[in-house]
């Protein structure tokens, strides 16, 4: 589904990301772990064509992302709160994204009803604009918005950060459900090794922009990773 | 400590994303400042002799109209003088005494150009008074009083900055007072000039403004100090939100989706709301020109200038900042399946609708004759046909993020309309003025009007072509824009 070729990103002579080759097959749930500055967000930004690669390219479902925009209809993402429109209410935001993704109001309402538990009664019909929600609640909105319109690729940057323990567990359930669908490729980045191991089939560890580990998740994965990041 | 603050300010200034792109603008502002300084300087030196020549006592005359001078100064400040916003939140928990923070923030305003420009008038005027043999001590005390009055305005502006509609109220007061005086109904200056004359003739009276200034500084200081809490002056006020469907816009497809969003954008953010108010102010701007009261404006070239402005308020205050309005969530827009065309035409339609509505509202200018209104209609055609495209094109290069959520309470800078806006507006006026001038020279003003209108129609006909061009620019500028918008403020 996603094919990375000779991808690198350099800022003023410093290489922050350098991936020679990486292939993510369709339906995989892919976890990206690494310390701060390892290049996780840079990779996602490149995948979403928010920054330009210094060399190489990424091909998302036969579409080279930095030359064509045809990846947009089947790719959904939430990197940070700059993906939210502060002056809208959560409902309006969902309908807006729905409009852009060719969904009608009923589709959105059905999706929101399905995830009512995840929202924990703090999001919908709360008479608040997105800008006035707490960081955690903003995140919930952003994550659910990526599910609108049945995307084939879902990209979540640090989805577990800022969430309370109950919500983290609910989110894991949602991601696992997504991963079970053979048509949906999920990409998740996180600092939390345990959460990532739990929801992903495959884990890639980045360090200073290079891939240092690429493992299919098994019982020993967590141990292996913890050993790697040990101080 | 102040030294460190100044260091922070300097860094914030030189490292902002808009610094490089706006350098040209900064130079322009510099020239503007130089221009006004010279004008005031000439006025300061010349006023005495001019008034003398008109057989008026210079000091008495100045004192007479001082009330209007001060009121106008306050209005201009309310409109243009931005409150220096220091990034206060991170400083609160550092070992810095709160008074220091507030003193610095207030102290910064003292250095504003809006205060210094008056010195260019008052200092030479005072010097001339002394040279012409007025009592030295009295003159100096009078000057001290003037400085205090100017600074009283400075702090009044800070205190009043967060109140809405004050600008309109003050304009109203000046208009009413001026009107009463003009029709000899009631002359406020008869009462105020007694006070201002007193500042000169009675030695101790200069203490009054000085003491008021000190008191005002004290009040402003405490107002800010007491509001220096995250849940007070630095808080964000939560408004009760209401979900609006605006389903009637659904019939317009993608365009409707964006229009819905833009309408909410304008309605729910203070900064964007001001643009609507400004369009109304622009509507009345034409009075300065068409009443023929001001000699410098009383020529046809100036009239076409006004014609463009009357219907162009929204275009200039809102249109200039597309796509900066969407800067806080620009990354979202760039990852969604968004056709640039839909996005752009939504903004374009908003501008067109606002221009048309302004033109209809401006029909009261028919009172000044059909030719005046025709000028306004032609201006509107040009705005829709050419300027609407120009602002969208220029917008593609605008890299200044707009912080919509900037409801930072007392310290927030909510002014959407500032000198920068005016400066980037000017080029959009030169072409129609030039066309009109050529037309008038070749034949008569009507040909000039026709030429401007035709330029507008040509622009309108080329709409699709221009849109594709703008689209291309947006695409090539995409990464730079994303990067610039990430750096807030």
Automatic annotation (TrEMBL), chain A:
Keywords: ATP-binding, Nucleotide-binding, Transport. It holds the Pfam family ABC_tran. It comes from the Bacteria. Residues 2-230 form the ABC transporter domain. Coiled coil: none annotated. GO terms for molecular function: ATP binding. This is ABC transporter ATP-binding protein. It comes from Flavobacterium zhoui.
From TrEMBL, chain B:
It comes from Flavobacterium xinjiangense. Keywords: Membrane, Transmembrane, Transmembrane helix. This is ABC-2 type transport system permease protein. The chain crosses the membrane at residues 27-51, 66-88, 109-134, 140-159, 166-184, 204-224, 274-292, 304-325, 346-367, 373-397, 417-439, 445-462. It comes from the Bacteria.
């Amino acid at each position: 589904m996603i094919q990375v070729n000779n991808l690198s990103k350099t800022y003023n002579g410093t290489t922050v990301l350098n991936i020679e080759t990486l292939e993510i097959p369709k339906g995989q749930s892919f976890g990206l772990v690494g310390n701060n500055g390892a290049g996780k967000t840079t990779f996602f930004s490149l995948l979403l064509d928010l920054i330009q690669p210094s060399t190489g390219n990424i091909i998302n479902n036969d579409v080279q992302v930095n030359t064509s925009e045809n990846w947009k209809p089947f790719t959904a993402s939430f990197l940070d709160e700059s993906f939210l429109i502060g002056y809208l209410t959560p409902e309006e935001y969902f309908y807006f994204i729905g409009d852009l993704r060719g969904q009608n109001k009923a589709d959105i309402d059905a999706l929101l009803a399905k995830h009512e538990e995840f929202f924990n009664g703090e999001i919908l019909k709360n008479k608040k604009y997105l800008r006035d929600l707490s960081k955690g609640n903003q995140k919930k909105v952003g994550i659910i918005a990526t599910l609108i319109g049945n995307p084939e690729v879902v990209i979540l940057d640090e989805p577990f950060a800022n969430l309370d323990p109950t919500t983290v567990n609910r989110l894991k359930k949602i991601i696992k459900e997504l991963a079970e669908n053979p048509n949906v490729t999920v990409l998740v980045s996180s600092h939390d090794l345990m959460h990532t191991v739990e929801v992903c089939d495959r884990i890639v560890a980045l360090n200073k922009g290079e891939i240092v580990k690429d493992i299919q998740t098994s019982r020993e994965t967590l141990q292996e990773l913890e050993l790697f990041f040990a101080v | 400590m102040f030294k460190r603050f100044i260091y922070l300010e300097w860094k914030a200034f030189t490292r902002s994303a808009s610094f490089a792109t706006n350098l040209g603008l900064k130079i322009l502002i510099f020239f503007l400042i130089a221009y006004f300084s010279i004008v005031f300087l000439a006025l300061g030196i010349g006023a005495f002799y001019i008034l003398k020549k008109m057989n008026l006592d210079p000091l008495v005359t100045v004192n007479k109209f001082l009330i209007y001078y001060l009121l106008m100064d306050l209005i201009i400040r309310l409109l243009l003088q931005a409150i220096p916003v220091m990034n206060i939140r991170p400083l609160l928990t550092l070992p810095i005494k709160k008074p220091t923070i507030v003193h610095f923030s207030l102290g910064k305003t003292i250095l504003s150009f809006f205060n210094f420009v008056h010195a260019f008038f008052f200092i030479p005027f005072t010097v001339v008074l002394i040279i012409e043999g007025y009592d030295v001590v009295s003159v100096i005390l009078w000057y001290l009083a003037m400085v205090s009055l100017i600074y009283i305005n400075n702090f009044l502006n800070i205190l009043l900055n967060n109140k809405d509609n004050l600008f309109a109220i003050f304009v109203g007061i000046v208009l009413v007072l001026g009107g009463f005086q003009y029709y000899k109904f009631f002359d406020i200056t008869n009462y105020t000039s007694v006070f201002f004359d007193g500042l000169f003739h009675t030695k101790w009276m200069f203490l009054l403004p000085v003491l008021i200034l000190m008191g005002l500084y004290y009040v402003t200081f405490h107002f800010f100090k007491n509001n220096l809490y995250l849940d007070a002056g630095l808080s964000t006020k939560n408004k009760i939100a209401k979900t609006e469907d605006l389903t009637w816009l659904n019939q317009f497809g993608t365009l409707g989706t964006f229009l819905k969003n833009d309408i909410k954008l304008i309605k729910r953010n203070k900064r964007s709301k001001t643009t609507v108010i400004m369009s109304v102010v622009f509507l009345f701007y034409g009075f300065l020109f068409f009443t023929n009261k001001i000699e410098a404006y009383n020529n046809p070239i100036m009239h076409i200038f006004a014609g463009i402005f009357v219907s162009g308020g929204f275009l200039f205050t809102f249109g200039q900042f597309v796509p900066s309005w969407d800067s806080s969530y620009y990354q979202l827009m760039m990852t969604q399946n968004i056709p640039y065309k839909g996005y752009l035409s939504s903004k374009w339609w908003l501008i067109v609708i606002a221009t048309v509505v302004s033109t209809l509202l401006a029909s009261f200018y028919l009172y000044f004759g059909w030719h005046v209104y025709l000028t306004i209609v032609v201006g509107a055609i040009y705005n829709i046909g050419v300027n609407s495209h120009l602002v969208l094109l220029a917008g593609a290069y605008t890299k200044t993020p707009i912080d919509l959520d900037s409801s930072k309470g007392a310290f927030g800078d909510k002014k959407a309309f500032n000198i920068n806006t005016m400066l980037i507006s000017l080029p959009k006026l030169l072409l129609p003025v030039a066309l009109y001038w050529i037309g008038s020279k070749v034949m008569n003003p009507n040909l000039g009007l026709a030429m401007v209108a035709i330029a507008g129609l040509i622009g309108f006909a080329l709409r699709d072509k221009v849109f594709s061009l703008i689209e291309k620019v947006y695409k090539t500028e995409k990464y730079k824009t994303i990067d610039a918008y990430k750096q807030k403020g």
